[in-house]
Design goal:
This protein is mainly alpha-helical. The protein is about 50% helix and about 5% strand. It has a two-stranded antiparallel sheet. The longest helix is centred in the last third of the chain and has 17 residues.
Length: about 110
């Protein structure tokens, strides 16, 4: 049987640290080894945990130099992901999140 831990990792798709998933489960009051069931899918704790894990992807580092960009997500993907995250948070009555401007470092300007 699949655990809630495995379900979160599978649903996020992109690799995230297992420790982060464990921390989210603890914060949301979910048991690491709890069975993933159809009832749990609709549980506010699971929906919040999924949104928290997806939000961690938005906090990943992006590097840009000239016309080259190295990072996990494009700006368009980040916006789409943010919309999904805010829909999840909104469905459980939690505040939406916003993308904060990131510091920019210019080299050889």
């Amino acid at each position: 049987m699949k655990t809630v831990f495995n379900a979160l990792i599978d649903e996020v798709i992109y690799p995230i640290p297992e420790g982060l998933v464990e921390n989210v489960l603890i914060r949301r009051g979910l048991d690491f080894d709890e069975s993933f069931t159809s009832e749990l899918v609709a549980d506010h704790r699971y929906i919040g945990a999924l949104a928290d894990c997806l939000y961690s992807l938005l906090q990943s580092i992006n590097f840009s130099e000239s016309d080259k960009s190295i990072g996990a997500l494009t700006d368009q993907q980040r916006k789409a992901l943010l919309a999904r995250i805010n829909k999840l948070y909104g469905s459980i009555g939690e505040d939406e999140v916003v993308l904060e401007p990131h510091p920019t470092v210019y080299i050889n300007c």
